[in-house]
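#dry-run=false #mode=assembly
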Amino acid sequence: MVKNLGENSKSVVIIGAGIAGIQAALDLGDMGIQVHLIEKQPCIGGRMAQLDKTFPTLDCSICILAPKLSECYRHDNITLHTLSEIQKIGGSVGNFSVDVLKHARYVKESVCTNCGDCGAICPVRGITNFFDANLVTQAAAQIAFPAAVPAAYRIDPSKCLYLNYEICGLCYQNCGADAIDFTQKDSILSLDKVGAIIVATGLDLAEDIHTLNIYGYQKYDNVITAMELERLICASGPQAGHLSRLTDGKHPKKIAYLQCIDSRSQKGQMYCSSVCCMYTTKEAMIAYEHDNELESYVFYIDMRAGGKGFQKFLQRGAKEYNIKYLKSKISHIDVDKDDNPIITYEDYETSEIKQLTVDLVVLATCIIPSRGINNLANVLGIDLDHYDFVKTNPFLPVETSIEGIYTCGCAREPMDIPRSVAEASGAAARAAEVIKGG
Ligand SMILES: Cc1cc2nc3c(=O)[nH]c(=O)nc-3n(C[C@H](O)[C@H](O)[C@H](O)COP(=O)(O)OP(=O)(O)OC[C@H]3O[C@@H](n4cnc5c(N)ncnc54)[C@H](O)[C@@H]3O)c2cc1C
Ligand code: SF4
Ligand code: SF4
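#status=ok
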């Protein structure tokens, strides 16, 4: 690592600490440049932290990510601001000023030992956990997952009895480390001498904003989303990686995967979500590794496997993992008396209308821009494209409409992890040019 450029040198603000923001922060930090990494959630890692394994290598996602999370946390040149959002910016390239709204954690980050005693004693339950795709609930004293970085609990101010009614206080009485701090307040951190800004706010998913009723999502319990399946098959997930139906605990023997849900559709978003064809095959492979009798059916419009080794990956799916690919158009989904989904579809090979009964349906829902991107774009003054992804120059993909503000990863368009990492290094290099006067 290069030595820090010195107290008087300019810093870079990175918004969003998913894999893209983390990679950009590490690149810049290693060049000796001071970085402020701003993350709205209580912990860093973004979507990659939620995944079980990643295509096309089937590497364990958290095993690759965890060393980067801790490196980011400990790095001398990176200051991490969780529970934080950008409130105001001023200035221009080479000399921005940035106001950051830091929400109180009500737990002293450096004192908390992550023992979990506060969460265990907290009487307020039933708060959904975004990290587990809202499949499980947690207490008002909470942590997204045990290996979260920072490894510190937080108290949900909208639900905590003490913060709302000045009653309870059980976590305060039971914290052996004396880490609970109800005197903390939201605060504004004003950063000046910010040379460049990187927007790495990533993605959200169609189910976050749409009902997806036509496919039976939220109507039938055995219709779930791909992100929910990621959590269900993940060893650190709510079923400790033993896939079973949420309705009756039955181990599924037939799973149908429906592609392009809300993507490439006039009723949803007109663009391709880019990663679903690959992650669907990955999920079917992982599920098969859990149970070799499993049959998987992928209902697709056309398979998009435009990456190195991707086509071979799909071929392996068909040959070695009992995956059948059905070029088709879904008409609708019902359920039988045992809650098994029945899919009615047109088989494009034969033009026949057919039905298939399965144990579980998994929807590959559309990747959409991060909620809140419009507000952030207004604050930064940058343009968004027709779909609200960050607009960039097609030949300079990390450049936004404002000089000195760069972007990378799914903030720009749906993309996989390797591309997000490559773009992050590109954005970091452009930001470094500004700081070092390249
Ligand atoms: C179901 C599913 C499975 C997938 N499987 C794979 C796979 O196997 N292999 C693969 O290569 N890719 C896979 N992907 C794609 C992968 O998730 C993305 O490529 C990757 O997460 C993009 O990283 P990112 O940092 O751009 O965005 P994100 O991971 O979304 O991170 C963005 C971060 O920014 C934060 N943020 C957002 N807005 C703000 C704001 N205003 N202020 C502060 N912080 C903010 C968010 O909280 C988040 O932490 C999958 C995607 C899905 C949906
Ligand atoms: S706040 Fe206290 S009780 Fe809660 S996890 Fe941290 S150290 Fe344990
Ligand atoms: S004070 Fe709030 S967070 Fe602590 S135990 Fe009571 S309700 Fe839970």
